[in-house]
Amino acid sequence: MNAADKKRLLREMLFARRFEERCYEAYVERKIGGFLHLYPGEEACAFGVLEAARPGHDYVITGYRDHVHAIKCGADPKEVMAELFAKETGSSKGRGGSMHIFDVKHHFMGGYALVGGPFPLAAGMAKAIQLKGGDEIAICFLGDAANNQGTFHESLNMAALWKLPVLYVCENNLYGIGTRIDRSTAVVEQYKRVAAYNIPSAQEDGQDIEKVFKAAQKAVKHVRSGKGPYFLELMTYRYRGHSMSDSNAYRGKDEERMWSKRDPIIMLRDRLIESGDLTKAAYKTMDTEILDQIENDIIAFAESSPEPRVEELHKYVFAENDPWVKGAARGGDK
Amino acid sequence: MAQIMFWEAVRRAHDEEMANDPMVICMGEDIGVAGGTYKATNGLYAKYGAERVIDTPISENGFTGLAVGASFLGVRPIVEIMSVNFAWLALDQLFNSAANVRYMSGGQLTAPVVVRSPGGTAHMLGAQHSARMEKVFMGIAGLRVVTPSNPRQAYGLLKSAVRCNDPVFINEHELMYNMKGEVPDNEYFMPLEGSEVAREGRDVTLFGYNISVHWCMAAADILSKQFGIEAEVIDLYSLAPLDRAGIRKSVSKTHRAIIVEEAEAPVGVGSEVMAIINEECFFELDAAPVRVSAENVPIPYNHTLEKAVIPDANDVVAAVRKMFGK
Fold first, then answer.
1. What domains are there in chain A, each with its CATH number?
2. For residue A157, what pLDDT band results from cuts at 50, 70 and 90?
3. Shortest CB distance from B186 goes to which of A127, A129, A333?
């Protein structure tokens, strides 16, 4: 990873941070409804892993904290914001919402709201890749708490059994909604749990994007070479509550302060300044440009976009004009 | 036109669709090396190999979700779930993922997965192997539900279900796999929506589906021979969506309706068909519609008790006689 890559990643992560912070404001302004799960604090996970993979080519799936993963895969941030604003121009045409961002043309296969739901879906995408003989891999991002679902064990078993090309990334932010991991989970270190399925795994600092990138390179290489699944645990922290309806009262302020000192963006920024590849002024300019882009380009687009039409309420329930659905029986004996 | 068994018809549909499209695969417990609990995939493992005929671990939600994920990328999986009781475990992936994904992605993704599973009460299998779950599946937006009553439908519906771009649940019956019936020698596709007139009649419509069609047919024979009542039998092979036009047409002709279901009455096919009759053709009715349903109890092991739960042709005859005061 050279200095130019690092600067680009710094910009991408800062963009993601500002995007999510603007979502928070829009939620407070009631422009965004429903549930909203924000990513600040965890940016190095999505960007570090996907930087080591091939976004837009590899198939990516995740849970409900999904905006940033979609954007890194290639989704237009304007369409993501428009989706949050429930507009027809949104990535899911206003039918999905924050928890269901999809951008299939960039192989971002969706955010899903059932904790642990994407585990088998990712295994299935990997099965399809295997059948078709492509060089893509499936990448599934989920939180630590998802590992207490049955789908975790069922999917890991099948992925290992059939050597499926799937990378499971565990973004371990230490909390399942409001319950700390050691109060919900017998084995706290998640990478150890997959040993039961003979799946190679590693644990890495999820706040340092360079470390994440390196660990992910190894993981991606393993999976793409046809050796089967891999499990990468990234130790991270979310700054906000689980969702906007979470008061965050279950964690100590000391803990929050401790993690804020390990902010993935600040760490990378300071490193670039120290190495002489970035000035404080350049960083400030970068931030201003991003804030302008979000306000003038992205929010403006979402605000001015039309809502879906009630006349199209039933669109997308079933395939349109599917030839196997209606009409007379076909074929048979004469 | 050959007479073949129900399982042979299902097997033939698998075989033809797998030969036609390399992206068609099948998966489930014991379906490969063992040939399938009901022989519906017999011989396919040897013909198509372990990559496409997949013996799964006993992880219903997991392998159903895996099939759904594979279908996102153009694979067309046919999943066998050994009993609908086990399909409860797969409801998460079937409903939350497969049925919703087209809508919540704004039409970007679809899950063209077929899940087949036998329901129904067979013989002394007890409460956890005798469920009739069609009422659950048919209430979910985004999921198609069909239920064949004979080998021809089993063949023609599975063929269409594999090619359709929506997720389809096929509700089969444990007692029907050895039932014989005519199936066209040539390739044959049934539309996934609709109903069939199994027997024409003018006096009363008997609505059945899956195994209850056979009770209706037997009842119609008795009614004709012994009571001079000519019953029309409508086979509601599509449960989601139900054929509103077919229901209206028959009730508008006979002016009387009896719905026969193997499941318990609450929140079922019977209540749904009654609601449709009310909405579509209430003023055509000469008598209040009647349901013939199972008793609302968990299925008992004891065979005498088990039989007492499930209706049969005699119960249908009794319901018609009561309606006509005969």
1. 3-312 (3.40.50.970)
2. very high
3. A333
